Amino acid sequence: TVSVLYWIVMSDASFSELVSALLQFAFASITMIIGNKKAVGALPLPCTLLLVQVIGTLVLLGVLPYSRRAMAGVSTRVVVAWIPIAVIFSTMIFTSLKSFQHAGVATILIFRNATAILTTATEVVMGQASTSAGVLAAELTIVIGATMYGNGAIDFSWVGFGWIFFNMCAQVAYGVTLKSYFAGNAAMKGLSKFDMSLLNNALCVPLVAAVGLAQGETVDGAVAAVRSMDATGALYVGLTCVAGFLISTSGFGLQRLVSASTFIVVNNLAKFVNILLGIVFLGEQVRGPMAIGGCVVAVLGGCWYSFETTRIAQNKAKKA
What we know:
Elements: H1 2-11, H2 15-42, H3 46-63, H4 65-70, H5 76-102, H6 105-112, H7 115-125, H8 133-152, H9 158-184, H10 186-189, H11 193-214, H12 219-227, H13 231-257, H14 260-281, H15 288-319
């Protein structure tokens, strides 16, 4: 790991810029995963927790000068066109929190690797991407690893797997829909990342609130749950608010500073760190050769898939 980090630092951008971007991205991605796991325990009402996180992000967008300056404003036509994306975004973050209620960090990350398979199938059908023998082999590796892990994991449950799968579908739908929107709409291409964050978070407030009321999260119950949090629980919830804002900006910033393959390495290192932190700080257990082996195989399969898809994109760019 040390040698990989050294390679990252020495191969891309200036040292100070790169270290700053790496720290922001690492903090955001790790805090969001570990923080969400702790936050759903401190505030066990998923829609109420989501509303707190979304409102926190909106406050940061409005308060921080650099985000305010970058937001040029959006037309009513763009707001209306963005509604389907906001619906998918709301589904994605809701199912993510439900996953954290029913499964451990390692289990979620291992099975989320299989999102690559759904993404490839969807993009190939829609004509948005091509595949290769290397991609298919990497996806098979992910399936083998996830199957091994599922058979050996002590916290596996079909309820948890169902929410994880639902979340995977929402992630794929979100990515494919965004790509389709940007390809065919000039007004969408002009949006900054802060404009998109504002649209997502503002439009999902009524959607999440409606789902919360439908499943029995009343206003009085939500207020009581928030008030009953101790200082530690409030800290975890607050950290996820900050991480939710940062993860939408630091990822773009890091991608501008480093190559695509370097970004993939950093992203997968964060995944390994999250699994280790889940074991060390959350007391999660990955025991037995089947679970441990499956964990390693699945994560390495995800790394392999990332490099294969990057290679395809680079080859297309060279031909163009």
